[in-house]
Amino acid sequence: MSGSDAERPKEADVLLRMTQGFAVSQSLYVAADLGIADYLADGALTAEDLAAKSGSHPGALARLLRLLVAFGIMKGEEHNRFSLTPVGQLLRSDVPGSLRATIRWLVGPWNWRAWENLSYSIRTSQPAFDHAWGISIFDYYECHGDISKIHDEGLEALTAQESSSILAAYDFSSFHTIVDVGGGNGALLAALLRHHPASTGKLADLPHVVNPALDVLQRAGVANRCERIGSNFFESVPQGGDLYILKSIIHDWDDARALTILRNCHRTMDRSATLLLLERTLPDQPTLEAAPRYLIDLTMLAIPGGRERTETEFRRLLGSAGFELMRVIPTGGSLEIVEARKE
Questions:
Q1: Are 302 and 128 in contact (CB under 8 A)?
Q2: Whether CATH 3.30.420.40 fits 107-342
Q3: Which neighbouring-strand residues pair with 77?
Q4: Is 79 an active-site residue?
Q5: H or E stretch at 104
Q6: What Rg, from alpha-carbon coordinates, does the chain have?
């Protein structure tokens, strides 16, 4: 047998493991959706116990739990009981850094159907979500409050992980009024205001998004320093800030619509104000290390119709909107800080 023939089984294993990735993500989704990890917060239980608590079939649930053991999410204990590994602890909804809501959001049926139609996006460069559901993801959230809540909880969990690295990477202390454009439920702005008690904030997003944000702001103890403004960033951006932040906004949109948002910011901002885009930047050449970023890039194509961008692409996009890219600051986390000012 030739050397190349001998290597083929290993190469096939690599492809097959990647091919079955959908089964792993669905298994995690079901475990998260059923709340299995929450039932294990106080210690190991049998599959029968967990099935009774979660409304599942004992035998079928046991098979799911065995898979999760194989992937290091669960541990098999004596007497056919199961417990959580450190990784599995993150499936609990009551622990710092919980990813339960994020998994439910990313792998829920609403997004799953879009991924089923990825070929449509590749053929047309249009969102598969719109093709599958007949409306955009943002209109879908507006029509389905329960799903919008899962989205907000999932995004809040991610923001909680990202906020500390953002705060450590950039000095926000000199800014008096921070405008969070498209700031969702206010998780990032709440973290910024909590760490900088001399600053005030303006949380700007669609009315049905910012109205429930009061709870997040109150829990952070900053509601009295933050104005909630119902607005559409395709039409206008609030005035009066010396810092404008857009976190994971520009990647939701194609260049034409991203330019509209940035030009509205440019029209509103004073010349001395600063613009920060909190985004992932793609390397100029794909690498294995950056593979998760390219997965997110395809997610942006298939679901909202946006894209991730390289530093060069950000520089060009910002320039078209009248901004100069000053620097790109690594945070040590999943996002970079793209700093810009008016030309």
A1: yes
A2: no
A3: 81
A4: no
A5: helix 100-107
A6: 22
